Amino acid sequence: MDRYDYVIIGAGSAGCVLANRLSEDASVRVLLLEAGGKDNSILVKMPAGVGALIGKAGTYNWGFWTQEEPQLENRKLWWPRGKGWGGSSSINGMIYIRGHARDYDNWRQMGLPGWSYRDVLPYFKRSESLEGGGDAWHGGDGPLKISKASSPNPIYKATVEAGRQAGHAVTSDFNGFQQEGWGPYQMTIHDGQRWSAARAYLHPAMSRPNLTCLTGARTTRIVVENGRAVGVEYVDAKKQKHMVHADKEVLLSAGAVQSPHILQLSGIGDPDELGKHGIPVVHALKGVGANLQDHLDVTMSWECPQPITAFSLRKGLVKTLLIGMNYAFFGKGLGRQQFLESGAFLKSRPDLDRPDLQIHTVLAVMQNHGNTVVEKDGFTFHVCQLRPESRGRVGLNSADPFADPAIFANYLATDEDRRALREGVRMMRKVAEQSALDAYRTEELFPGKQVQTDAEIDAWIRKHAETIYHPVGTCKMGTDEMAVVDAELKVRGLAGLRVIDASVMPTLVGGNTNAPTIMIAEKAADMIRGKAALPADDAPVYEDGQKAA
Fold first, then answer.
1. Catalytic residue among 261, 283, 464, 470
2. Active site includes 470?
3. pLDDT tens, residue by residue, 95-116
4. What is the rounded radius of gyration, in angstroms, for the C-alpha atoms of the chain?
């Protein structure tokens, strides 16, 4: 049996960070197990390749489905999840968003010391290298390259101006002093290339002799002996079973869907759930798989009278081939863009303490994850509710480790969730009708002007809403009986096992979840190594009534 100090399960965003930071210590041996393969496709490298990666299952996408969702006409929803080096950071839309400062202060108020905004900001800053250099809110020399919006397409600036005309604030940096308002996005793109967690953290560490990375290694069980996780059982690409021993810790970083799935397959979870599938209880933890939260999203699209959106820019086989060749051979052209560079964070009602809606502006008529082709020039507002009250669950379909997990998101289970998304639709209509967009907007394609009343909007949402790919919470940090890990991400009641990924978030942050996941892993690496936490940082925040430094 091979022995390592640390065995990391999953080479996604968190796993890549851990592999890098832990292997900095040449005295320890680190094994990284990944069920998928390497991130060597041009579609992963090229930002414009995102559409080909996220809509279909394949080499880089697990391609899960939810169970029937009762508030969404009993539809089963498509859930893409990254597979291979970089995990979902290798297939996502490359938007770099941290969430609101108050999101992390709420974690601290839940009894989780060390997780307030002032505590986590230093780890965000350590991870990133922002184009143009660091400041009070940003790092300038971290491994994760962050670029600023640079596309000359006029629709991006027009939507920001339309937001201002509709009465909303404008902000220059969603991750800085003020999140609320319309503005440009920052992106995990560097020199026209996707800068995934694998690119930022794993590739630079691969030459270290104390780091071993195995691909095609699917974890089937965490091995527990006498109340301690001592190793991992996995099956290789040839279907051969192996077991590796972890002398110090097993670190589970398989994501919000697969981390609870692996725990349950290992007999760690709710005894009732395990019993349904004949899995012996190794360690009872009722919260495993519970507390699932995700951002539900609807896409509103308008036709554009000018041939300046993705449809005309990429129309036809010749143009598509030329874009790919120009990028592959010269690193130039439209392949460098992901067609999503502006958006907003807005409040659906004025009494809220922070935005509860996020808008992504896409230079295409985007429907059904891009799988529904609409042959028209146009732009889309993704309207996403940021803080759902609804809670779902990730469970088992069977005891077969190769069977997909059972995902029940339980979307729109509360009146507030339905109200917020409905209001978001109305708000975007008001933005779209502003004069700043007159030259770029004609017909409302989706949902269409015939959808007006509350009942009509709700019905349209039930029929068309989809995930925007941000599941969290299924192995939550906490102090209550449903918590799976403590504030140091150690599994409660078990030695030698931590969960480190988006599943540990007790509540969903207000924004895209890749940046927070990387931050969590950066912070966890210091905990594991016994290093003192980085000094807290008191950068000013608009909601505190402070002015920017």
1. 470
2. yes
3. 999 999 999 999 999 999 999 9
4. 22
